Amino acid sequence: MNAVIIFGTHYGSARDYAEKLAEQLRLECFLYKEFRPSRHYDLLLYVGSLYAGGVPGLAKTLARCAGAPPQRVLVVTVGISDPADAQNAENIANSVCRQLPAELRDKTELFHVRGRLDYPRLKPHHRLMMKLVYQQAQKTPPEKRDEETRALIATYNQTVDFVDFSALEPVIDRYRQLDTSGAFTNPAQGATIGTEGGR
Ligand SMILES: Cc1cc2nc3c(=O)[nH]c(=O)nc-3n(C[C@H](O)[C@H](O)[C@H](O)COP(=O)(O)O)c2cc1C
Fold first, then answer.
1. pLDDT digits (tens, 9 = 90+) for 105-127
2. What does the chain look like in DSSP terms, one character per residue?
3. Which of 9, 20, 32, 50 is the best mutation target for the ligand 1 pocket, counting ligand atoms within 8 Å of the beta carbon and taking the most?
4. How do the domains of the chain map onto residue ranges?
5. Which fold has domain 1-115+162-199?
């Protein structure tokens, strides 16, 4: 199987996950800005952090592959909110779905891991964005706050690190399954973007 890892990051946690995957799967790994596809890939593994639901570089990378689209895409999102919360995972899936070309939606499987957030290191526009979102979040009554809102409030102005490489195990398992089973002719087994959410 011909595969590549691309990542989109601002502060490095998606890079750390991508490099760990590259090491484990013995694949090449590129920052999306540096990726110029010169061949067809059976599988594209995209590791991208979440910024207001957006994944930096994902849409651009897939657009760059439009001439020879991958047969399968695995997207690993890296965020601060807890993806074990089903509603949160579904919200992330819906948001990622909007960043995919329609023809790749049924070929895309989603995985979610948690990253890190270091307020003292945030660039001014990110800090301002978080301040505005935090002020808005505080107006939501506690019983009506979703996981994303709770995580935002709990981590505001702090340094938190939820990076856990063991969370990549389902991604590694899925990659190996696809690699060894001739799976490109089989239906997707992970949560595809067109279904009820990620995992
Ligand atoms: C401006 C801003 C927006 C963010 N939006 C989200 C979000 O929508 N969902 C989420 O779970 N985490 C969100 N986060 C947290 C980041 O996804 C998290 O810190 C991630 O690990 C950053 O990845 P990076 O180090 O690769 O840039 C946001 C962080 C910032 C600074």
1. 999 999 999 999 999 999 999 99
2. --EEEEEE-SSSHHHHHHHHHHHHHT--EEEGGG----S--SEEEEEEE-BTTB-TTHHHHHHHTTTS--SEEEEEEEESS-TTSHHHHHHHHHHHHTTS-GGGGGGEEEEEEE-EEEGGG--HHHHHHHHHHHHHHHTS-GGG--HHHHHHHHHTTSEEE---GGGGHHHHHHHHHHHHTTGGGSPP-S-BTTTT---
3. 50
4. 1-115+162-199, 117-160
5. Rossmann fold (3.40.50)
pTM reported for the whole predicted model: 0.92
Answer whether 163's CB lies under 8 Å from 17's CB.
yes
- Ligand 1 atom with minimal separation from the 16 CA: 26
- Give the integer Cα–Cα distance in Å for 67 and 64: 8
Interval between CA 3 and ligand 1 midpoint (Å): 26
Residues with CB under 6 A from ligand 1: 9-14, 49-53, 78-81, 115-117, 122, 126, 129-130, 148
Q: Mean pLDDT over residues 66-77, rounded?
A: 95
Cα 80 to ligand 1 centre (Å): 6
